[in-house]
Amino acid sequence: MHICKWPPYFCIFREGFGAVQRYHNVRPIGGPVVEYHVRDKNRRGGIWRKSVRTVTLGLCLFTLGCGGGDAAPSASQPVTLPPSAPSPTPVPTPTPVPTPTPMPADFEAIIEAAENFDDPEFAIIIGNSSGIIFEYEKGGFSVSEQRLIASATKWYTAATIMRLVDAGIMDLSDNPQQYLSYWTNNPGDPRSRITLAQLLSFTSGFNATPGVDSCVNEAATTLQACAEEIYGFDIATVPGTAFVYGPHHMHIAAAMAEQATGLDFEVIFRNNVAGPAGMSEESSYLTPSLTNPRVSGGAVSTGRDYALFLQGILDGSLITDRDNFLADRTSNVTFGFRPDGAVENGDWHYALGAWLECDVEPFEQSCAEAQIYSSPGSFGWTPWIDFQNGYFAIIARRGERGSADVGVALEQILQPLIVEALAN
């Protein structure tokens, strides 16, 4: 288990189980040098042993095994020749060794809840507009581990297209026929009235549900060909009147974005979201293929990358028109299919690519004001932002398909604990 808190670059790393556990405390003591304290506790004998090693800050922050021993002098350091006659070397005054920083009391309840939660492997990241403030890893799961994120992809996709809207390349009121030559322009055909906003909020009328057997799962085709195939399915409800959670809406929106930019959607994502947010190459639309990415559920990512994305949404650096991005798009629609988590934990509404959570039923104005947005995925990958309390969090997980309820259950446990921790 790794537990970290920034600032001031404080980390506790626990390794091992059973009789011997090791807690590694890392914290700066001034300048670019930190003290690396290792405390070994033998539970049988109740013996604590502590050793101190000095390492560079850059190594200590990101490396578990901060190497000991003497460091070689830098090549840029001047070399001083010894004097002709040796002189006594003055004895330096010993630097007092500070007491290792204890476990932060404000996160103890979160750690306890995570330890007690019946799930063997996951990670938790918590941050605010300044960056990550807490990390936790359980069962060997790493915050830098690349995993399929299923429906958490939807937030990436909505943000990618919203960046094009912010840039004036597209508009949320755009219709598909402005970009797709085969799309009807007949005002008598309701498909001609579908808007980009409706496609990103699952109110377009293309109401296939997540388990549909369609071209969105075919690696050999292209996103453009698949969108045209979906167009041939016709729509089940009048655009803007019903919400149905499913993959076809966003596939059409992504096809529009490709035509608007002349770029593959993967490139649009890298140029507009991954790059500006500082995300790694580990985040990508890999499945079923780069030529036909399932933009509603086919991305891979890491916990750290998703945290950077959430920070960019929270601090306003990623989305300029955040009010439009976060607006409730389902306040006046009939709800069709919603995943269990959206109905078993209250009455969740939908924005663009993300749920607007509400723990009571029916949806209340207080929920709109609280502004808690999330995008849980089928494997339990659960990111959320609490704008009212100024933080973001993610549960990164590698569960079985169909275990989104596990991530949401832990999210619901952690939310009040995080608010309490941040208030202390």
Account of the 3D structure:
With 424 residues, the protein is α+β, with helices and mostly antiparallel strands. The chain has twelve helices and 17 strands. The chain has helices at 57-62, 108-116, 153-166, 196-200, 223-231, 248-261, 265-277, 303-314, 322-326, 340-344, 365-370, 404-423, and strands spanning 2-5, 10-15, 20-28, 33-42, 47-56, 122-128, 131-138, 147-148, 242-243, 284-285, 299-301, 334-335, 349-350, 355-356, 372-374, 382-386, 391-397. The strands form three sheets. A twelve-stranded antiparallel beta sheet has the order 5-4-3-2-1-7-6-17-16-15-14-13, with helices on both faces. Strands 8-11-10 form a three-stranded antiparallel beta sheet. A two-stranded parallel sheet has the order 9-12. A hairpin with a 7-residue loop joins strand 15 and strand 16. Helix 2 (108-116) runs antiparallel to helix 12 (404-423), helix 3 (153-166) packs parallel to helix 6 (248-261) and helix 5 (223-231) crosses helix 6. The radius of gyration is 25 Å and the shape is globular. The two termini are 24 Å apart. The relative contact order is 0.13. Residues 2-89 and 97-105 have low confidence and may be disordered.
